[in-house]
Design goal:
- Two copies of one chain form a homodimer.
- The first copy, chain A, is of the alpha/beta class.
- Chain A has one domain: Rossmann fold (3-Layer(aba) Sandwich), CATH 3.40.50.
- The first copy, chain A, has nine helices and eleven strands.
- In chain A, helix 8 links the parallel strand 9 and strand 10.
- At the A-B interface, strand 7, strand 10, helix 9 and strand 11 of A face strand 7, strand 10, helix 9 and strand 11 of B.
Amino acid sequence: MSTTVGILGGTGPAGRGVAIRLASAGYDVTLGSRDEQRASETAGGLSPRGNGSIGGGTNEAAASCDVVIVATPWDSAVATVSSLKDQLANKVVISMVNALTKEGRELLPLYPPRGSMAAQIAHALPRSNITGAFHHLPAAQMEDLDSDLRADVVVFGDNAEARTATVQLVNAMAGLRAVEVGSLSLASAVEAFTAVCISINIRHKAHTYVQLAGLDH
Amino acid sequence: MSTTVGILGGTGPAGRGVAIRLASAGYDVTLGSRDEQRASETAGGLSPRGNGSIGGGTNEAAASCDVVIVATPWDSAVATVSSLKDQLANKVVISMVNALTKEGRELLPLYPPRGSMAAQIAHALPRSNITGAFHHLPAAQMEDLDSDLRADVVVFGDNAEARTATVQLVNAMAGLRAVEVGSLSLASAVEAFTAVCISINIRHKAHTYVQLAGLDH
């Protein structure tokens, strides 16, 4: 039986892009939303290529999957995962959340009380294994399977097995290469750099993403 | 007459790499150090290719140049620039300082009281125009003019003219492409990401650097 992946708050651009590439890699994906109907409609509008599937449902349904990705807006992430604490226990929970605020034509990083959104989520889910991934990705290119995406995805987390599981998930997805960096202590730096990528995009009218040169795998 | 560039704390690996590529682009560079003799010896050991020169001297000598780069260790940066406040007035001062601390096999970002080292330096130099650049570069490849370096350098700062001057300086250097991102508010995110690059290097025994895909200049 294939691994199932749930995406909390999965109907936004970030969640959709990850969903379509996961399903195209053979995973069965549940897009979760507070609005179950919107989740079903969004899932129905995505056409993965491969053996996987995308369905829509509640966040509870998404949280019942084998692996769960948090893709909610940053200011609802803790409330969402806290309400699903028991279902998420003993699972790998991947945060792709960035706390950002707009100021003029720039996106700027916010630093949550525990330093990062991944740390906020880890504190809310003491029985889950938190990792981080998918932070710097261009949503439009993620969703377009014909785009020539070759992005590096920095993966962090305190639990080595959970990091390995996350790396495997990322590397299964077309156009992405996982780069394991280390512990959750690096989450603030990874999350905040998303503000740099998006601010560059706004200024240069581009769809930038990060490639790490000089890494042979 | 060509532009002169001074590098405060320029005898370390980061300063040397920037010096050799600036001199190879035709700039006359002064490596500054608290130890004048070490600065002269370090400068004498660097062989730029081109019309520029590299000399060694005191940090005072480096501060008398047209443009000044801060490459000291993070914990001496504010003391160094504060003592040169008058000489640095009305100049573009480029911070390449990252506040990092080692924990096990990782480098982790420190967040200075004003959010970033560039902001600390800006506060210490109210009459100078502070920008940031050169944060994510691999020192060994910077110093080796035969390396196949093609790195993107994120440039930030509150003063548009100073940013433009910094972009021009970076783009004159072989192997580097400047990417203007915006204001000093983004400094913390740029500086902290250096910890991610170095931690990846330690874990993967690599010399990683950042390329931003999808940007046409």
